[in-house]
Amino acid sequence: MTKDFSEVLERLTGRDMELIDALARHRVLTAAQMADLYFPSTWAARVRAVTLVEMEVLARFRDDNRKAYRYTLGYWGGGVHAWRQGESAPTRAVVALAVHQLAVSRKRGHLEGVNAFFARMHAESREAGGLTVGSWLCEDEAAGLFLGKVRPDGAGTLMGEGCSTPFFFEYDTGSEPLGYLAAKLDRYAAKQPVGGNRLVLLQIIRPGRERNFHDHLAGRRFPFLIATTSAGAGFLGACWRVLGSERPARLSELGAAVRS
User: Fold this and answer.
1) Which end of the chain is more exposed for a tag (fewer CB within 10 A), N or C?
2) Containing domain of residue 93, as a range?
3) Which InterPro entries does the annotation name (predicted)?
4) Neighbours of 95 (CB within 10 A)
5) Global pTM value
6) Rounded (to 5) percent helix, strand, coil in the chain
C-alpha cells in the first residue's frame, strides 16, 4: 500500500466500505438512494458523499444543474474495492473512462430505476421493522442463477417473521413492446434457475401499460407467481397485482402464497 492509500483507508468507516461494495456491484446511486440504504437522512448522505468525492473515493456527475448528482466509484474507491477483492487496482484513466461511459450510457436510466426500487425496499423494510432485504443481486449476479440464459434486472430476498421470500425483479419503462416482456417471462419458465423458481416482481411505471400487460397475458399460466405494480414507493403495502387477479395484494401475502 502507498502512503496515500493508507491515509484513505484510515479515513473510511465501515459504512463507507458498504457503500463502496454496493457501488462496485450496482454502479450508480443518488444521495437519496444512499440514505435509503445506509444513512439516517438524505442530507447526511449528501454531506458524506461530498467528503468522499473530495477524497476521490467517489466520483459524481449529473445531466444538468437541476438534476441530483449521481455517484459512482472514483479512483480510490475502485482501488479500495480491488484491494479487498485481491485484484489489481484500476488506473486513473480506466476509472475516468468508466465514469464517462456510465454518465452517457443510454441504459443508465433503466439501471437507476432498478436501483431505486431496491433502495426503497431496504428503507421501507427497515421502517416497518421485523423485515430486511437479505440479498440484492445485480443483473450479472441474477443471471448467474440461470447460468446466463436469462438476465433478470435484479434479484433479492425479503426476510422476516422467521421466513424468507426470494424474488426476481424486472423494471419496465415502456420502451419495449409488451410481447418482449412476455417473451422474457417465457424464458424464465423454460430455464430452471439455481435454487428453484422464485416470485417474479415487475414494476411497470405506467398504470395503463400495467393494465395492458395483464390483458396481454390473460389466461396464461406460469410455474411461478408473477405480480406487478405501477407504484413508485410503498412496495410493502397493497400495491401488487397478481397475474390473473384484480385484488391488490401486499408483498407479505405474495410471500405466503409462494411458500404455501
Assistant:
1) C
2) 3-105
3) Replic_Relax (IPR025855)
4) 21
5) 0.95
6) 50, 20, 35
